[in-house]
Specification:
By secondary structure, the chain is mainly α. It has helices spanning 3-26, 33-40, 44-50, 53-77, 82-99, 101-108, 114-117, 121-133, 142-162, 170-184. It folds into 2 domains: 1-51, Orthogonal Bundle (Arc Repressor Mutant, subunit A), CATH 1.10.10.60; 55-197, Tetracycline Repressor, domain 2 (Orthogonal Bundle). The radius of gyration is 18 Å and the shape is globular.
Length: 197
């Protein structure tokens, strides 16, 4: 990566971090783009060079965190069964999002899911590792299955955030969605057993 590219990535990361901190402190609707730029010590124009305003910043924060769920357990999945590794990573995602739920609910009401499920690099890497271990079918493209895992996680999160009162926490809700995708991706002729965790 060139120095210029590294500088751009650093600016993007600083903007996303500053936005998340302000969204948490003030709420999504009350945070202005100018406040984010000031917090990140970057110009107002820099935000618009990298993101589509506040919505783009929030979308990137969620997408990157969701992808880290899968990235965090990809190395572990090369050595151990897929589901326990995924459950451990999923807990960190759920804990963070449950803490940020107030501002995320404001954002999610107008969120478009498409940008959230693109670039599922961590999920794709996890699927490749699980396929090589024999945990998942090898006849499915890892990019497609990785995208489905990301879509399941983001979709379950959105359902949970939009619910007035959830009977269970985000972790249980998201795990059911991921299990549904993973059950369909099992090796052929493998019997689906009830989930006991």
């Amino acid at each position: 990566m060139s120095l210029r590219e590294a500088k751009k990535e650093r600016a993007r990361a600083d903007l996303v971090q500053a936005a998340a901190e302000l969204f948490e402190a003030r709420g999504f609707d009350a945070t202005r783009v100018a406040d984010i730029a000031a917090r990140a010590q970057l110009s107002h124009t820099t935000i618009h060079n990298h993101f589509a305003g506040k919505d783009g910043l929030a979308t990137e924060w969620i997408r990157a965190r969701a992808d880290r769920v899968f990235e965090a357990c990809a190395d572990e999945a090369e050595q151990s069964p897929l589901r326990p590794a995924l459950r451990r990573s999923l807990r960190a995602w759920c804990d963070a999002l449950e803490a940020d739920a107030p501002w995320l609910r404001q954002f999610w009401q107008r969120c478009r899911i498409g940008p959230l499920v693109t670039e599922a690099t961590g999920a794709t890497r996890l699927v490749r590792a699980a396929q090589q271990r024999g945990d998942l079918r090898r006849d499915l493209p890892p990019e497609q299955l990785g995208g489905l895992l990301m879509a399941a996680l983001v979709g379950a999160t959105g359902e949970w955030l939009n619910a007035d009162a959830s009977a269970d926490g985000l972790s249980a809700h998201a795990q059911r969605a991921l299990d549904l995708v993973l059950d369909g991706a099992r090796r052929r002729n493998e019997r689906v057993r009830p989930n006991v965790s």
